[in-house]
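Hi R.,

Here's the chain you asked about this morning:
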Amino acid sequence: MSVNASLQRAHGQLVFVDPKTDRSRRTITRPSITVEALKRWRKDQNERRLLLGGAWDDADVVIDRGDGRPVDPGELSHAFARLCSRVRLEGVRLHGLRHAFATQLLAANVDPKVVSHALGHASAAFTMDVYSHILPSMGGRSPAR
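And here is the predicted structure, written out as tokens:
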């Protein structure tokens, strides 16, 4: 999986912009279960692409509106909030998944350099500055389970 752009709303339009830093542009390794799920999702997208023909807007995104166009990041955040509310996970934000991902990797003793690369941080030292407070080995509290 590669990160090579960011989708933002600017002047009322959705635009793809370059990542904030060179390190933000990266390839991320994913577990095989995630890769398989993404393959199934891409197969579904390809079937929709064939059905829509010329009406398909090929933005080459993972999450689309059903016709290839990207989903507005604000809409995605709101949809995630509604889902969390339905399952009684109040206060959980979509961006919080990024922190949960990093926390779980570090708690599982994944090398901080690997975690730093996955997050697009400038250095492993920055990653550890942000997340060391939750690691028991560094005097922090245990991650919630």
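One quick note: The longest strand covers residues 6-10.

Cheers,
M.
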